[in-house]
Amino acid sequence: MFFAVARFKNSVRAGVYPAPLSSWVLTFAVTCGLSAVGVDFFGFIHFLMSLSPLNLHLFGLPLAWLVSCSIVATLWWICVILFFRYGLKLLLMYKGWIFEVRGTKTSLTTKLWMMCLRPLANVTKPMLYSYQQSLPRLPLPSLEGTLERFLRSVKPLETAEEFAETTRLAEEFRLGLGKKLQRYVWLKSWWSTNYVSNWWEEYVYLRGRSPLMVNSNFYCIDMLMEPLTNVQAARAASMIYGALLFRRLLDRQELEPIMIYSMVPLCSSQYERLFNTTRVPGVESDTIVHRADADHIAVLHKGRIFKVLVYHRGRLLKPCEIEMQPQKILDNPVDPADGEAKLPALTAGVNRISLNAVESAAFVVTLDDKEFYYDPKDHTKLDKYAHQLLTESGCDKWFDKTFNLVVAKNARIGFNAEHSWYKEDGHCDGEPAFDPPEPVKLKWQLPPECIGNIEFSYKRDPSAASSLGYVVQQQQRRDPEADRHPVCCIAVNWDSTGKFSLTYEASMTRMYREGRTETVRSCSIESCAFVLAMKNPESTPSERYKLLKDACDRHQLSYQAAMVGEGVDRHLFCLYVVSRYLDADSPFLKRVLSQPWRLSTSQTPHGQTSKLDLRKNPHWISAGGGFRPVTDDGYGVSYIVAGEDVIFFHISSKRSCNLTDSTRFADSAQPHLGYIW
């Protein structure tokens, strides 16, 4: 009850932002004062009093008058809030500042924009969702602009004949079916909060029928430089406790929203389903189920699944109390029931009570019986670390949950997600106030037919898991300002395959409400020219430098355009969805969507919260995370700028393809990294 009231109060506070709740009292006092001296706000107060049958007094004042003043004050208060909110939204629609080069003179327009925005964005301390109603809608780009950017992106990838055909199809689409589809998407952009997000979630993620383990989920690695303890149960307890404290911050909206330059807020909607959420399988499409609260977590260990309560009489257990529960699970000798050990490979249900215990859990913890290692001189240990987090046996994680916290036997941790309090002996600090509730081993009654399905899913998933090759490479970053990974990746890919490939890089559109991602097509005319110059022994260093600068400038411009809704792929995707609804055939859209992304890249961000200061604690850096390649003959490359002088690259590829090799890719990167950085 207390948490429900607190959530309601915080929702109201966020809903009236930028005005504080106390401003209503001031508005009411001013309204009463003005009414007392004869200012009647167009006669509203007198009119409302005439409607009231009340003839009572409160503190010597007519109750009907007080009620009428409160109604008028509330109306004025709401009008002022809406005025400032829409004023803030209007200011946030301006994106010209993104395209201004750092270090150059700021334009007069941007200076005036900053002068207006800064006081509005910082009237009061914002809560996590305070800016949601003020964020602008994702703008719909023009059909002509999208087609022009698309043609420019594929020109270096196609022969002259292929490009001529693509251009012809694009022109036919622009003059014909494209206009009709654009009108439908335009209508959706006006009546929906975000014209992309719900279709992207449904058709790209929820309707996918391939296994999540290697086709959707990603992994993240622990901080490497400073192991905090080697006691598995203690590390699990501290991470569980920390995750639940973070959930409390989200529930109370006490986490600060991410702000660019302390002025421009990013959308916080994706926090809403971080906890208490699971993906429930369906025949044609899965569904996301989110619960308001959960007082337990699910723990997987050696094929067994346990329900673990983390609250007692409304109080979150202390780390030292939580530690006792995973330790009891580790000491529990009971074997898994028939089919239970491989049940997560199926991630579907038979026993409703047990399945509900997992699906309704705040999150899932895996107590791994293997150890994770890191050695800066031996990348194969980190490669294995990454493999264990993303795939491993295929039945040691519940892949439908929002995230799985994986705790290794030697207390290293990691995450698998669907897209410190220690004593000297390593145990959690503090003394338990009581013996916490026993972990409950979930019971399953699995008929032979279900066990057969589990075995089928298990045998399919390990084959997919073993087919992936991983390399996690650590590089020293010589130039803190150098962010040249797209050019580097394209160069290495050209080395590996002998041709340029369509390259995916994830950008964000979170400056808009419910914004998610947009694609940056990193393989550009300029980047290809640079790569060819690097392969040409007659090219001079000055020529190569100029081409590199041109490639980076083009990449930055493409990234900026994607951030403000001027990308290519999300727009074309929505046009394709409408064409399917209308049962309209488009040779152009078929050609676009059939082009494979042989190089998929992404950056793992950090430093987005004040809760962790890497400048004060440089040894707390993480190696980031990674994902699988998008195509069978491609690469998946993720990277993280970890501190001031280290970059980690995560490279994945399919072992079944003789054209790709993660180790060769990493080895080929060395000369390019040396030149660029």
UniProtKB/TrEMBL annotation:
GO terms for biological process: carnitine metabolic process; fatty acid beta-oxidation. InterPro entries: Carn_acyl_trans (IPR000542), Carn_acyl_trans_N (IPR042572), CAT-like_dom_sf (IPR023213), Cho/carn_acyl_trans (IPR039551), Cho/carn_acyl_trans_2 (IPR042231). Keywords: Acyltransferase, Fatty acid metabolism, Lipid metabolism, Membrane, Transferase, Transmembrane, Transmembrane helix, Transport. The keyword Transport applies. Residues 138-667 form the Choline/carnitine acyltransferase domain. The active site is at H419. One of its GO terms (molecular function) is carnitine O-palmitoyltransferase activity. Pathway: Lipid metabolism; fatty acid beta-oxidation. One of its GO terms (cellular component) is membrane. It is a multi-pass membrane protein. The chain crosses the membrane at residues 21-45, 65-88. It is found in: Membrane. It catalyses: 4,8-dimethylnonanoyl-CoA + (R)-carnitine = O-4,8-dimethylnonanoyl-(R)-carnitine + CoA. Belongs to the carnitine/choline acetyltransferase family. This is Choline/carnitine acyltransferase domain-containing protein. It comes from Notodromas monacha.
